[in-house]
Amino acid sequence: MNLTMNNAINVLNALIEIIDGRIAGYDSAIAATDEAELKTLFSQLKFTSQKCKTELAIEVQKKGGQPGESTSINGRFTTATIKASVANMGKDREAIYHFCNQCIDGIAAAYNQIIADDFEELSYEQQGMVTVQRALIKVDKQKIDSLHHRPFEHR
Predict the structure, then answer these.
(1) How far apart are the C-alpha atoms of 115 and 50, rounded to whole Å?
(2) Residues in CB range of 21: below 8 A, 6 or more apart
């Protein structure tokens, strides 16, 4: 396997690691709330994340790599931190909103950093896929923001 292919696999696996943290965060957020509206939103966001992860994993396999093979200690620590943070919020809707908003901002920043630093390591097809995924993250952030700005009625 050549260096360029290894670099592409590493970049794609870094994105998988980011998405794994996102999925863990949504799982924890779903468990942390009793509100059907939030559970539905977080389930939708998790589905989007799983779809992105699957696309990335397919690309890693096409390059001859193993998806998630380079999961770092930092990635595992981030996932554990996300789970613990959401669990400690209890049922506080506002705290869950702010935490998810911070997480999605961090994920967007990580995607932007990879695009700025490592985009040339990816094929044009992969670059397009990553660009679409970044746009989906922006849409998800808008969904979280719109939910926060609507008045909440206890059900």
Answers:
(1) 20
(2) 75, 78, 79, 82, 103, 107
